[in-house]
Design a protein that fits this description.
Length: 75
């Protein structure tokens, strides 16, 4: 018989804060539904893009905002 031990909790003090897109998915990993759920339950994802610290998410937020600005200028 195998004994199942629980997964150890992540004890890192500083965690990256990821951005959630309009669909509730993590911007730097949009295809992984588990990552979105995990990041929400662990409190490491936010819809407030001003507080994001993940480099990949920040780059994607910047591109997203730039596209939105250009779309508004053309309208």
């Amino acid at each position: 018989m195998h004994s199942h031990k629980p997964m150890p909790r992540d004890k890192r003090q500083k965690r990256y804060l990821h951005a959630l897109d309009e669909n509730g998915m993590v911007m730097c990993n949009p295809r992984d539904k588990e990552a979105a759920l995990r990041s929400l339950t662990e409190g490491i994802a936010t819809e407030d893009w001003e507080t994001v610290t993940c480099r990949k998410c920040l780059a994607l937020v910047f591109i997203h905002n730039k596209i939105l600005k250009e779309g508004k200028k053309q309208s």
